[in-house]
Amino acid sequence: MLRYERKYKIEGVDLSTVFQTIRNHPASLSQIYPDRQINNIYYDTMGLTTYKENVMGIAERKKFRVRWYGYDPLVVKSPQLEIKLRKNEVGDKIIHPVEPFELDNLRGLTKQVNQLVPPNYLQPVLQNSYKRAYFGTTDKKFRVTVDWELSYGGLFNQPQFRKHDFREKNVIILELKYDRDLEKEASRISQYFPFRRTKNSKYVTGVEYCW
Questions:
Q1: How far is CA 94 from the centre of its chain?
Q2: Span 38-58, pLDDT tens digits
């Protein structure tokens, strides 16, 4: 499904204040799923093509990540490869289930990934984890996610994940997500967020933290 994402990188604001802003929104945003932790391994080429295309603002680009959920990032359950497609401001996603794997040996996972998206010669570059809360409007047209406790671990030229090297303290990422035909209505939704809209990529942030 093609959709837009409006992102807000919030710094120096308490998480409780962000949640209260959402609950007080006139669009009657309410929590639609329980909070959970998201864990990702991002894949890129040896030359970091995906990273460079994002930084340069290339209109059409892809991003590759393996995602699973759970508060212990070392316990991998029901992982899936997500290929995020981006064309200007519109995004889409292709999902492939992958076999469970061990974080102390990523060679098998890397083989699976490259079989699903040849001939990219992809390799693991970054692991990141964060907690997420989910909110939505009653008509299900708009969804808001809030991410916090973001942490990153470098994987470049490493066959295994050991630990998180960096943590973003006092940083919260809010995203407003909606179908592309709702752009005008989205402007009415976003005007009640007292935060500055920003460009934000967790992958780019993690790469720049780790290197």
A1: 14
A2: 999 999 999 999 999 999 999
